[in-house]
Recover the amino acids of this structure.
């Protein structure tokens, strides 16, 4: 039987600050392939990350903020953003492909290429206990395959590995403070995996995931619900099937009741099936020689 992946994308109708909240597509039922790095993004839809990357490419791969500003000046995106220089300073600190050049605060940045996903089939079934790093790596790799920016906690990016690579190889965003207030930031930046898209004010999460096996469903949900509601993020707990009843029981508590429509439980088998279907599709697509179109 041939598996078919249906293309779905996040609803962009609410991407502005304060009106973010377009409903996200269902996940773990239909797969989403929206953007592939080999397909050049149409210029009207360029993100600030794209703009800064192009500027550094014109500078030979490395440049000072002043030189980046000189090249970006006059770009169509600057016409609707009077603080575009501040935006550029934010962008070079948020994305992993912009590496600061020593000494600190030199204002110099180097463009580095994000490693290709290169994901291989993986299996969570029968593992007892399930390796948290593997489940986390599968989620991050899926986000990359589907064209999202991805985020993992700073400590996990260097201490946890998936298929022989540190999770940093699957994480494209290093700073999530742009969409999150300080009183929630500590918890949000510990969420296991997030998939993000960017509007004029920076990246924000469309999906957020907590892998819960040993610490319990409640602790994961406590972190997930700290993601600002204005982002309209779909929140997922991924865990063993026997935790589903515990998950459902939490909605009787006032604190979680209002999140009933945004919070979802998926077991390890669900993640296993989605991940391996996506990897299989990527292999077939690449072998055939086509790339998904940016939507």
């Amino acid at each position: 039987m041939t598996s078919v992946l249906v293309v779905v994308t996040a609803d962009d109708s609410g991407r502005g600050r304060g009106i973010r909240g377009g409903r996200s597509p269902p996940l773990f039922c239909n797969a989403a392939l929206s953007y592939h790095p080999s397909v050049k993004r149409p210029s009207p839809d360029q993100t600030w990350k794209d703009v800064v990357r192009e500027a550094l490419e014109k500078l030979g791969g490395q440049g000072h903020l002043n030189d980046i500003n000189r090249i970006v000046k006059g770009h169509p995106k600057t016409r609707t953003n009077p603080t575009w220089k501040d935006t550029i300073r934010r962008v070079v600190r948020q994305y992993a492909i912009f590496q600061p050049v020593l000494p600190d605060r030199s204002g110099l940045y180097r463009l580095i290429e994000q490693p290709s996903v290169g994901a291989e089939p993986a299996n969570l079934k029968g593992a007892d206990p399930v390796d948290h790093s593997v489940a986390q790596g599968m989620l991050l790799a899926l986000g990359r395959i589907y064209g999202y920016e991805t985020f993992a906690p700073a400590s996990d990016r260097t201490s946890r590995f998936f298929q022989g690579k540190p999770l940093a190889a699957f994480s494209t965003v290093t700073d999530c403070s742009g969409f999150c207030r300080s009183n929630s930031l500590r918890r949000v930046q510990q969420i296991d995996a997030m998939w993000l898209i960017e509007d004029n004010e920076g990246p924000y999460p469309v999906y957020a995931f907590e892998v819960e096996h040993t610490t319990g469903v409640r602790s994961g949900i406590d972190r997930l619900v700290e993601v600002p509601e204005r982002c309209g993020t779909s929140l997922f707990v991924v865990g063993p099937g026997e935790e589903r009843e515990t998950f459902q029981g939490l909605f009787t508590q006032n604190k979680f009741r209002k999140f009933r429509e945004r919070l979802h439980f998926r077991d390890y088998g669900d993640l296993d099936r989605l991940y391996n279907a996506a990897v299989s599709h990527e292999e077939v697509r690449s072998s055939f020689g086509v790339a998904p179109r940016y939507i």
Summary: Residues 1-23, 29-42 have pLDDT under 50 and may be disordered. The beta strands are 62-64, 98-100, 108-111, 149-151, 161-162, 165-166, 193-199, 202-211, 234-239, 263-267. DSSP finds ten helices and ten strands in the chain. Residues 43-111 form a domain with the Arc Repressor Mutant, subunit A fold (CATH 1.10.10.10).
